[in-house]
Amino acid sequence: MNEAVQQKSFLEEVQRSLDTRLRTAQADSEAVRQRLSQADGERAQLEGVVLELQTEVAKLAEQRDAALKRVASLQEQLDRKQRADSVEMVRMSVPETVTLVQTEQPAGSGYGHE
């Protein structure tokens, strides 16, 4: 009978130990579930932030492209102005001593004087 009492006592101790481990595992499982739920919320929030940032990046890329086109246009205008200024400077540096020489056409040369 003593052996049966010892076995019963041993089995009760094992049962208490298993119950404790089960409660601990259930508590751990619940904590993990809560953390996963929190992580899902954080992930959704971060996905929203990423979407906002992607939209902002696209807007900035459009602004950059427009600015690059404007810069190219201004550079083209500047180049034309510099070429015009260079031509004007050359024109101003050439002395105005060029004279026009009028040549007389001999009579009957075929220019209507016949």
Structure write-up:
With 114 residues, the protein is mostly helical. 81% of the residues lie in helices and 0% in strands. It has one helix and no strands. It has one helix at 2-93. It is rod-shaped, with a radius of gyration of 49 Å. The model has no long low-confidence stretch (mean pLDDT 88).
How do the helices and strands line up, and which of them pair or pack?
Layout: H1 2-93
Rg over CA atoms = 49 Å
β-strand amount: under 5%
Given the C-alpha coordinates, what overall shape results?
Answer: rod-shaped
Total helices: the number is 1
Q: In terms of structural class, how would the helical and strand content be classed?
A: mainly alpha
Which ranges are low-confidence, i.e. pLDDT below 50, for 5 or more consecutive residues? none
Span between termini:
162 Å
Helix content class:
over 70%
N-to-C SSE string, H for helix and E for strand = H
Count of extended strands = 0
Largest β sheet strand count, sense and barrel closure: none
Short description:
This protein has 114 residues and is mainly alpha-helical. It is built from 1 helix and no strands. The model has no long low-confidence stretch (mean pLDDT 88).
Provide tags for this entry.
single chain; 1 helix; 114 residues; 81% helix
